[in-house]
Amino acid sequence: MNVIDWRLRISQGRPMIGDQEIREELIRWLDQGRVQPSQIAELLNIPRSRVTEMRNRKRRVQQQEMPILVEFLKMGEAAAVLPEGAIPVTGIPHLGEVPAGPWREAIKSSSRYIPAPQPGMPDSAYALTVTGNSMDKVVRDGAMIIIDPEDRDLFDRWFYVIRNGDGEVTFKQYRENPARLVPCSNDPAHQVIPVASREYEVIGRVILITMSPDQAALD
Q1: Taking the model in full, what pTM does it have?
Q2: For the residues of 33-85, what is the DSSP string, one character each?
């Protein structure tokens, strides 16, 4: 699947800088000791606690703060800040892969970001690429799912990423009475997993499935 890099928004041939990229650069400066939180608070005329929230990725850079920080952080004359009135493109982290198949260890090796597929995504949300075919009635191998790790309550028929006691994860649908993880697959080799049979942990609820048209499960 081809994903448009969220940082490469173009205006008159100039790369656009979004709030996510500015915040990450600010965090880098703070972590390296190149600037102090009190300096940023004074620069932006905000309480120091707001700077701490940005450093902890709990607050976004506001529209009016973006050009100030771009200039202060020396992010380059070749880059342009989003114009007044434009909606910033928010990035969410892509943490690697999750198996739609047997239990196995998730791969969390990626540090890249993708554009938020729709507005209002939770700040805690992150993306995983699906591998395997145990959910191919819903989504095929290579599609992307968005996870909310703060939404862990189990409800019948909803989709979740689950980790077992061995640290392995899987992407499945949860069903009740009895409690079980169900593959949604055309392959009969994939079996229902009774959740009562072993220790498990809910990593997060799948709040969105995104794919390119050729990945739709239409067979």
Answers
A1: 0.58
A2: TSS-HHHHHHHHT--HHHHHHHHTT-SPPPGGGHHHHHHHTT--TT-EEPPTT
- For the record, the structure tokens of 25 come out as 């650069």
Task: Give the model confidence (pLDDT) of 154-199 as tens digits.
Answer: 999 999 999 888 888 899 999 998 999 999 998 889 999 888 766 7
Is 108 among the domain residues?
Answer: yes
CATH number of the domain where residue 14 is located: 1.10.260.40
Beta bridge partners of 194: 180
Q: Are the C-beta atoms of residues 204 and 150 closer than 8 Å to each other?
A: yes
Is residue 4 in some structural domain? no
Q: Are residues 103 and 123 both part of a single domain?
A: yes
193 and 114 belong to one structural domain: yes
